[in-house]
Amino acid sequence: QRSNLSSTLRSLDGRSYGNYKQIRGRYEFGPVTVFIDRVQVDPFASPSKARIRINRAEAGFPTDITTEREDRIAASDFLFRVGNSFLHRNDRRAIILGRPGQEVLERTNVVIDDEGFEARLLVNLPARGRRILGHQAADILTRDVPELAQAMFVHANLATSAQASDGPTRDDSGNDAQDDSSDALREHVQLHRDQLELQNHLGEEDLLAFVGNGAILPRRSGDSDLPMDSRAVAFTSPSSLEHTVTLSSGRSLTGMAIPRGVTVIVGGGYHGKSTILRALERGVYPHIAGDGREWVITEPSATSIRAEDGRAVTGDDISPFINNLPSGTDTRAFTTTNASGSTSQAANLVEAVEVGARSLLIDEDTSATNFMIRDERMRALIPAEREPITPFVDRIRPLFTRRGVSTVLVAGGSSAFFEVADHVIALDAYVPQEVTEKAHELVGVDPAELEGASPADRDAASPASPVNREDESADDSGDMFAAPRPRIPTATALRPSSKTKSAKAKGLGQVQFGKAFIDLAAVSQLIDPQQTTGIAEALEYMAEIFDDRTSLTDALAEVEDMLDAQGVDGLTGNRDHPGHVSRPRPQEIAAALNRFRGLRLVE
Length: 603
Ligand code: ADP
Ligand code: MG
Known about the structure:
By secondary structure, the chain is an alpha+beta fold. It contains 15 helices and 25 strands.
């Protein structure tokens, strides 16, 4: 088996490309095993699939931090970055390991199991025309690929990381390099542990998000996820919202804690409102050291909600927001192929809540105004029974008090949300301050009048307080937020007619499903094209679950359970080489299902 992969390849030089297929198999290079799982049929087909693997005993770093599931995710991410920077530094373009971003995601590219460490590669086997370039292929597969395995699993030296700045590339013998790399790995794993502990702490303390003092929220540019340079103003918490947490590692963090409930972010245009909200959106994922958002942590189900006119909607109960449409359409099971701004935002919201979002993140920039608010004069001019929309400002509190769903809202253009806010945060030149009292005074609200306000506020209540807006609609919202009706896709809903592999990611923002395309461009918490691939795999997986009885949420829960038990490999049917796939959140899988124009429901 160690065999003569090299001599085989050299002997194939100049022969027709199809002859590459005979190199499938398993080869040993010292401690490194190389598996060639699939060979492309021609130079233009998708690349060939190979894996590199070593046993635990051979790893050049401490393996005690690679036993727990969450540690394995972080350690895999570290090794993934090591491999990537090695390929980049050495310009090994034929070998593809996948491209890491600023977040740590669970992915198939590098996996750690009880036996050892494995990386899944895509390799473009070289050709001139349709002839095999055998000597080059031998260099790639018998020199470059094993070298990559050594770099990742034996040296594990992340030379381009922040820790190593422009330090030495590689030191094969020195203990120093070895220690540096295992320290870096340890730090990477520890950061991830701390981030998850902080996220758990949020849940225990009834907090929705945490933004650490010193965080750098703005990005370098609209098309870069890297931190802004020295012009960035570091985050500082308003003193009233400041919270200090000491983690079990001994790390102590101070920053702004956003409590559950309704939080409104105000401030002048260009003062950094959307930037904070976007950081919270991303805070559902842990960020790598040096990103600036390491300590921006949001509870994991938080979902960004926006208007998305033109999307399809299938059987959503949007009646809490929209009723009595002039067409007579039943909005308790609302279906359209072309939603308006307000109906699309209502659909996005009820779908998020359906799959268990406990907090919503909403920016005025991407909202439909008529979904959000209606001012007093308009209420006077258009009688309620002539207006199908109950604006979000009237629903935001019952959503919290009856469904436990919190909201963080950016609203710089209207004071309408002051009276329903537990907290109002004003940004002035990127510096936040809490202005809740002032905002409540302006609209004449006593905090104790807010349903679900904290007991402390309630004690401070004075008898002469104004009435809350939500009371106008208290009668109907009671029922509306009571029991969501499960949506049950038909058994064939996800079985498109096409016989071939039915779902396929097309970049970050689109999934091809049979002959249809699912547009995910508006799904802002979908951040990595490999997650889109994960969504495509999840849709295929769910096609097998739907049986005219299983609800959409039950099917998603089944997918989550499987992912927790088997990892992302399970999504792909545990093929030897599953390709490059990342774990999507259930929210984003649901987003794809909900935007699928072929979705059909039972009854
Ligand atoms: P708003 O939503 O309040 O209009 P944005 O969040 O869009 O403002 O921010 C406006 C600009 O300011 C953006 O170009 C953003 O990158 C930049 N910016 C945001 N936060 C900071 C900060 N903390 N330091 C420096 N620049 C920032
Ligand atoms: Mg904005």
